[in-house]
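If it is no trouble, can you show me the amino acids of a protein and the tokens describing how it folds?
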Amino acid sequence: MTLSRLFTTLMASAVIVLAGSGAGRAAGQDGMPDLPKAPVETAGSLSGAYLAAKTAQASGDLDAATDYYTQALSIDPTAEALQQDAMFAYLADGRFKDGVDLAAKLRDDANVAKVARITLGVDALTKGDFEAAIAEFDVVNPTDLDALLLAHLMAWAEVGAGRVDEALSRIDQSTGAPWYAIFNAYQKGLIASLAGRPQVARKVLSDVVADQTLARTSPDAYLGAADALARLETREGDKQAALKAVDAGLAVAPNYTPLTFLRDRIDRGETIEPAAASVQEGAAESLYVLGQAINRGDGRDVALLYFQLARALSPRSPALLTALAGIAEQANQLDLAISYYKEIPENSAFRRTADLQIGLDLWYAEKKDEAKRHLERAVRDYPDDVRAHTALADVLSADKQYAEAAGALDKAVELAKADDAENWNLYYQRGIAYERQKMWDKAEPDFKKALELSPDQPQVLNYLGYSWVDMNRHLDEGLGMIKRAVDLRPNDGYIIDSLGWAYYRLGRYDDAVEQLERAVLITPMDPTINDHLGDAYWQVGRKREAKFQWERALVGKPEPEAEQRREIEAKLKDGLTGAASSEKADTGTAETPKRAEAEATSPTTDLPAKPANPAATPASPTPPEAAPGAAPTTTN
């Protein structure tokens, strides 16, 4: 549980308060309009209100949970355990002022004092009371992560108090775990830049940008340093140095929208703002970058707390809004995610990505017509953006409008760099759109092109290999492709099903049974896999077991489509007759590749990471944990 603990004394109940919480409210008490919300029922008793709050939290409805906590506190405003739980819920929900009120009461509570004091310190920063902030951040016995965060927040408070040397000294003296280096350098560069010390800022930021290995610890800090250095050099009048810093960042993350957006602005000669234009923005950036470093798995709950504290300091930060939307998406709170995206300013580098994610979230929220209209508008607004055409193609394919999807992908392919390995998915998805239209003469070249760009893509190997076997073409090569796909994804029930069904189509029924039994163990509720296994059992004489599998297929998840249901019901009545077997053979191409298509075209893998780091935000690797002395394990 160390990743779920912001501080060593953070009690288990406080972690539970955050668990499953989603991303809080998108607008609230800090000068922003509230989202429309349904009123919660009056609980009527302390225990009823408290239980309702806990239940709402468990279901991910923080908005309702905080309302119930408010009811409970109105009945008993002195209960410490209730105050503790409510404080965490208020903070996670973005009800910062309510959280501050409770933090003031809990400042000396041994269980939650550190969180309370961080909250009070952040509140002091928002008000410009920098001495009070420093006093609150002066916490004893911090963990490594605590110490780093507190040093940065106190340094920003020192800047606000006019003590720049002391601020820089606090950063220099923050010498804990080895992974401190990039975070310290980034914050020192931001402080020096804001304080009018360009030489200091240039030195520390350049050192970060020159060492790409630092991105393994925190891609957000690395790319932030590149962005800050480029802004500094532009403001200092050195355009070439600025563009060099941008290029260094793009070498690590070629599609990182904020840097491409900044490059365009520099080229146009626009006035470029500093990376942090105020003490509050700088402190918010510290919370944001460290939040991104732990924004995964159990750490997402704590990251949400960091982000909401940061948002109290910088309410309109596009990066923060994007991160909060990502957490909401992970919690399947799609309307909330959309509301965050809508708050992103029109002139922001994150605006375009937000528009595309809104369309995809509308689709996932079952607002399919609205999603298509939104993405069609996005294509008109961003006609030269590959991602816009791909996002539209995603929802069109998911809605089985394959001709229209192919048209959108034609434009995406035209805009993309043909030989860029990252574009394999464009050809793969267009190949599926063609195959769905029974245009194999166009589909096959696209599948081959996808494999040429990225030879070991299991989805493509599976789709092309199965299609060849199904059409009785290139049998050895096709079967070899499917086996290779299974080797690459040995625990993927759908791809193993492809191998089993290919054996079935080749008349190798014993081999089919072996593979299909593996597939159904991995993916037990899929109707098509159960249907396939039933057919294979019938062919080897295991007719009772065949009927059992067909019955399971009828109650599978997702539910079988109408035509498949009719075929299964006919087999349950009459068995797998010769006519039924022939019918199956005639329609086989739609079987396994259909599920590969769903995997490939469901919105969306082309837009950078959804959730935690949606769209323009780089994915963070394994972060520093909150345990003393813990160091990050770097991943790609």
Notes: Residues 1-20, 29-36, 579-636 have pLDDT under 50 and may be disordered.
